[in-house]
Design a protein that fits this description.
The complex is a heterodimer. Chain A is mainly β. Chain A has no helices and twelve strands. The radius of gyration of chain B is 13 Å and the shape is globular. Classes of the chains: A mainly beta, B mainly beta.
């Protein structure tokens, strides 16, 4: 079975500051890793994903995440946040050999960007 | 195009009403999902359809009845709901390839309030 731990339930940060949202996972088999973002009163949007290849993946709006197999982590980073980045961020894993729909979510991290 | 659409955006219903939620995708995906999301929580999987057949039912009460009329459409029929069923209902889709993890794309959700 797989599990996902998002270590911080809330992360307050000032605009233009760097931010890191932490995600650790547990799995005995290879996984795909995802970050989804949920803006207030909206659905989930895929922010970025790691399937294979380069361990550093980037999104179009400046976020990046690095897959670290030895530390079983997939932390999300942005060097300079904007007010518009205020949202809930969910880390998720999907494992090889799992049943259809096997997407395991962390509990989420609420990023609050203050002016 | 990675768009999943859902209608209606908002729904208020009484406990004796019958209503339906609709989800549509035109990405050629063959797996579709219903999730329920309560406030400040991650989404919880309810149902999975694979090639228009129900493949997973996560022990959802019978007052929720899913239907997949074709590969692009997914409905969720609601009857005799309880106030605790009030939540954001999210639809998602993926390619539906067997044997491996997949990327799920989510719709904007239907926010349901049961009075």
């Amino acid at each position: 079975a797989q599990s996902v731990t998002q270590l911080d339930s809330q992360v307050p940060v000032f605009e233009e500051a760097p931010v890191e949202l932490r995600c650790n996972y547990s799995s005995s088999v290879s996984v795909y890793l995802f970050w989804y973002v949920q803006y207030p009163n909206q659905g989930l949007q895929l922010l970025l994903k790691y399937l294979s290849g380069s361990t550093l993946v980037e999104s179009i709006n400046g976020f990046e995440a690095e897959f670290n197999k030895s530390q079983t982590s997939f932390h999300l980073r942005k060097p300079s946040v904007h007010i518009s980045d205020t949202a809930e961020y969910f880390c998720a894993v999907s494992a090889y050999g799992g049943s259809q729909g096997n997407l395991i979510f962390g509990k989420g991290t609420k990023l609050s960007v203050k002016p | 195009d990675t768009e999943v659409t859902q209608t209606p955006k908002h729904l208020v219903m009484g406990m004796t009403n019958k209503k339906s939620l609709k989800c549509e995708q035109h990405m050629g995906h063959r797996a579709m999902y219903w999730y329920k999301q309560k406030a400040k929580k991650p989404p919880e999987l309810m149902f999975v359809y694979s090639y228009e057949k129900l493949s997973i039912n996560e022990s959802v009460p019978s007052r929720f009845s899913p239907e997949c009329p074709n590969s692009s459409l997914l409905n969720l029929h609601l009857h005799a709901l309880q106030p605790e069923d009030s939540a954001l209902y999210l639809c998602a889709s993926s390619k539906g390839l067997a044997g491996g993890p997949e990327t799920q794309y989510f719709g904007p959700g239907t926010r349901l309030l049961v009075l």
